[in-house]
Amino acid sequence: SMTIDDYDIDIKKAVGYADSYHLEFDKNDMIINMQKINFDGSIYYRDDLFVNGTITSALINANKLISGDNDPFDLEAIPRFDVDLNIKQLTYDHIDINHLIGRFKNKSGRISSDEFKFDGVSGSFNGYGSLHQYNKGNLYFDIVGSAQQLEVSEVFKQLKDFGQNTLTHQHLSGKLNADFKTKFQFDNNFNLVMKTIDYDGYTIIKNGELNNFKPLESLSYYISINELRHIQFEDLENIIKIKNGLVHIPNMRILSNAFNIEIEGTHDFYNQIDYKVRMRLSSLLSKKKNIKGL
């Protein structure tokens, strides 16, 4: 057993070769290549320890790493480091991250990376950002990056549909690309605080589908109910903003198999929606005529 800053790790196998260590514990494995490790005095004092090197791992299950610790997470208890990370698979709750690569630093209780990349939600991410904490409170993330070819339904599913059940992963599909900046918080027990999500991003959705979305069925007087239950639309491009639990959708035009409309409005994380929809009267009358002619 090894203890660092009062965290107990049960190591099932450890093999060391000079400056290289292979650790396996609780179905997690890690290879640490130390270029430099310095400390003066007790290892229990964070300021006395500095790690510079490379960490690689085939699997890190964050749920298992934190499940046995009932104390609130303290970022300042982590030793200072400047390391290259190469993690094949990282899992936490509903979130799966693959092939995480980047240089990460921990200085004065602030973890940062000038560049990182990883695969997830059937696509890929790259960017830069930081993580900090005040007085053992919430964990503050600040990230600027881009996302390529994400599956929209998986984004909603892994984020638990943003805590609402009006528009969910079961309703959506398509590929999402975005250039974004975002801030959000986890509490010190590693739960995402939904209302803290602050997102601003130029977003494109390709080959989108909206299926069985009940609010649209109110248009069934004008449009076939079967069309309304399975809507396929052309590429959507817009600047999406999320702040204080509210998703802001600026005016945009949607061209679909069922109708062509303009839409704008808000959708919050508490199942409240406020959309303004514009549709040409001639288009509605034409649809209604076609329905009556069936």
Class per helix and strand makeup:
mainly beta
What does the largest sheet look like?
Answer: 16 strands, mixed
Number of strands: 18
Tell me the series of helices and strands, N- to C-terminal.
Answer: EEEEEEHEEEEEHEEHEEEEEH
User: What portion of the residues fall into strands of 2 or more residues?
Assistant: over 45%
Rg from Cα: 24 Å
Total count of helical runs of at least 4 residues: 4
| Morphology | elongated
Q: Estimate percent helicity.
A: 10-25%
Low-confidence stretches: 1-18, 34-46
Average residue-wise pLDDT: 78
Multimer state: single chain
Distance between the termini: 75 Å
Keywords:
16-stranded mixed beta sheet, elongated, mainly beta, 294 residues, 4 helices
Summarize the structure in words:
The protein is mainly beta and 294 residues long. The protein has four helices and 18 strands. The chain has a 16-stranded mixed beta sheet that branches. It is elongated, with a radius of gyration of 24 Å. The chain starts with a strand and ends with a helix.
In short:
This protein is mainly beta. It has helices spanning 62-67, 152-158, 225-229, 281-292; strands at 2-4, 7-9, 13-17, 20-25, 28-38, 50-61, 80-92, 95-107, 110-120, 123-133, 139-151, 172-186, 192-211, 230-233, 236-243, 246-255, 260-268, 273-278. Helix content is 10%, strand content 59%.
Topology record:
Blueprint lengths: L1 E3 L2 E3 L3 E5 L2 E6 L2 E11 L11 E12 H6 L12 E13 L2 E13 L2 E11 L2 E11 L5 E13 H7 L13 E15 L5 E20 L13 H5 E4 L2 E8 L2 E10 L4 E9 L4 E6 L2 H12 L2
Parallel strand pairs: 6-7
Antiparallel strand pairs: 1-2, 3-4, 4-5, 5-6, 7-8, 8-9, 9-10, 10-11, 11-12, 12-13, 13-14, 13-15, 15-16, 16-17, 17-18
